[in-house]
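user: can you give me the structure for this one chain? tokens are fine.
assistant: on it. calling the predictor now.
[tool input]
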Amino acid sequence: MEYVVDLIWDDEAKVWMAIGDTETGIILESDSLERLIERVKLATPELLYMNKGSLPKNITFCFKIQYDVIGIELKESQCDSIINKKPNHSFKNKEK
């Protein structure tokens, strides 16, 4: 399953923000883009499990990076997959 996550630079707060779709409900921020992407990859399986009660076998992220400084906008997309990644929590996955 593919999940789109917008990564947006907030120039006023000097942080990157991650805003996911309504299925994941993810909203995170970090001062580092790389750290933010790692946080999204770790948090998404947990949020999916809490929201849906199960996990898909494959999770693919499509990161849409938006960086706007002084009216110049840079947009970039990056897709990344997590295959059979287990969430880092004590819940049991109902799908086996």
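assistant: here you go. Residues 2-83 form a domain with the TTHA1013/TTHA0281-like fold (CATH 3.30.2390.10). The helical segments are 33-52.
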